[in-house]
Amino acid sequence: MLKATNRHPYRPAHLHFLIAAEGYETLITHLFVDGDQHLDSDAVFGVKKSLIRTYTRQEPGVSPDGRMMAGPWYHLHMISASNSRSFSSLPSRDREGAVFTTVRDELRLD
């Protein structure tokens, strides 16, 4: 069937998140790696422009939380992320980082 429809079974590189904080709806999402060759042909049609992010390669050294990273690692800067009605109802001045009260805004992939 894939051959007949000129499709493939591949997904673009992505990372899943489950973010929970007391007083807010739980957010479950995923973020795709900018530049992946399968962004325009995801096998499950899950890519949205708003979910594509740049993961910046970092050389070995000290990570944002102070850990020594022996090998290369990737940094993902999160500005905001939520489709939760309780999050959206917050005044805009309170939205930045509200869902991330228990999650760092830098992500280490090691």
Your description of this structure?
Helices cover 7% and strands 27% of the residues. The protein is built from 2 helices and 8 strands; from the N terminus they run βββββββααβ. The chain has helices spanning 85-88, 92-95; strands spanning 14-19, 27-33, 52-53, 56-58, 61-62, 68-69, 73-77, 106-108. β1 and β2 (27-33) form a beta hairpin. It is flat, with a radius of gyration of 17 Å.
Major sheet characteristics: 3 strands, mixed
**Alpha plus pi helix count:** 2
If you compute it from the alpha carbons, what radius of gyration comes out, rounded to the nearest whole angstrom? 17 Å
Q: Give the distance, in angstroms, between the N- and C-terminal Cα atoms.
A: 37 Å
Q: How many domains, as an integer?
A: 1
- Strand-pairing-aware structural class: mainly beta
Give helix and strand order, one letter per element, not per position: EEEEEEEHHE
Q: How would the global form be characterised?
A: flat
What proportion of the residues form beta strands (DSSP E)? 25-35%
Mean pLDDT: 75
The total of beta strands comes to 8
Stretches with pLDDT under 50, minimum 5 residues: 81-110
